[in-house]
Amino acid sequence: MVIRQISNFSVAYIVFAVTLATATLWAPLVASARPEVSLPSPSRVFDVNARRQAMAALTLTEQVDFCGAQPILDRLDYQTPRAVVLRPHPRGLYIFNTLDYVAAIHAGVETFIGNGDTAALAYLKQIILDAANDGAFTLGSNNTAGPRFLHGPREPAFVQAILLIPISHAIEVLRSQNQLDSTQLATIESWGKLIFDRSKNVSDRTINDVTAAKAAAYMTWGAAIGDNEIFQNGLQRFDRVASTMRDDGSYEIFIGGPAGSRLDPREYVRASNQIVGWMTIAAEAAAQNGIDAYGFEYGGSTLHDSVQWHVNASTDPRSQSRTPPNQNLRHMARRKVDSVFSFAWVEPYLSRFPDEQASITALEAVDRIGSGEPLYSGMYGGTLQCYYRPTGSPGN
Q1: Which of 5, 359, 369, 377 qualifies as a FRET site for 277, CA 20 to 30 Å off?
Q2: DSSP conformation letters of 23-88
């Protein structure tokens, strides 16, 4: 059964994938001025109990508006995927094999956060433990008959890595509510670590959106289970991507640089959305543990500069000299999507830095993206305002 109404990937994603596959390590690594950091103990992805307390003060209608939270009982017939091997989908991209499972996890997590539905906990525990016991998605199968950019080893590794984000949210919720005994917790952790091991060294010779996605996934998973080694692995990828920032916050790896020259210039802002989105998710995983990755300097620039550049380019492409007119702004078109073509990643930034000009501009832009439901992206972590945004903030 389909848990959420989700949109399909278009041919545009495949075209963009060609560019990602051809990006090379031409960009020099800029010396980072960031301090050496480590996860505290305990570490976390977000504060579940604080979010529940905030949601409990709202009416049911407000909870639904804020989290998309709905009664979970009608979703309990969802069957956890038993596939150990992540195989190519008949429609092409490996990601199609995991979309319903990711949406199911988000439904359980966000329903519990939103209205405290205990059935959501049982549902979430079931689908996580079933998959963990089966080792779901821990192996990738390559279809060598297809184009390498579509069926090569990078694609299953990318899908495996980003699965760790919703799994991290689930384990945070279940652990905070004392739903897991030590054996169950160990089973889930072992499953996640296997996904990490199987995905971490695939297609790592390039710097592209997969590098940023792995940074987000590994920093989030490391924070979820208190594993500093995994967190540091993600942070190293964060450094690699951030080292390609220009002074204005744009990324040389796509925006007008050698890799960018192979991308239609009208796709620059859409390409930037994937980089800035994953980097923001990664930085928030650090910030939840007292580590200001948002403020780490790379050649004098920080992620704040990237967010500001991207928000400006997304709301007015003509304001940026590197972005020609007629930009593809698909990421600004819909509030609920399964893909990376979404502005949902901005929610943690809005919540943490409400007074930054980038946040003010972004919030105005969010209000113009349709209406009636919170931003949702299956690939950036779900309905992120449910996890982070203060209930009394603008826009709610």
Answers
A1: 5
A2: --TTSPPPPB-PPP----SS--SS-HHHHHHHHHTS-HHHHHHHH----SGGGTTPPPP--SEEPP
Left if phi > 0, otherwise alpha if psi is -120 to 50, otherwise beta: which for 35? beta
Asked if the model's pLDDT at residue 180 lies above 50, the reply is yes
Taking Cα atoms as reference points, which of 68, 70, 72 lies closest to residue 372?
Answer: 68
Assigned fold of 11-388 = Glycosyltransferase (1.50.10)
Of the listed ranges 111-115, 146-150, 242-246, the one predicted with least confidence? 146-150
Range from 185-199, 217-231, 234-248, 363-377 carrying the lowest mean pLDDT: 363-377
User: Do residues 310 and 332 lie in contact, with contact meaning Cβ atoms separated by under 8 Å?
Assistant: no
> Tell me: the pLDDT tens digits for 334-355?
777 777 788 889 999 999 999 9
Contact 220, 171 (CB under 8 A): no
| Model confidence, pTM | 0.85
**Given the DSSP bridges, would you call strands 336-337 and 139-140 parallel, antiparallel or unpaired?**
unpaired
The domain locations on the chain are: 11-388
Contact 194, 160 (CB under 8 A): no
- Bridge partners of 68, per DSSP, are none
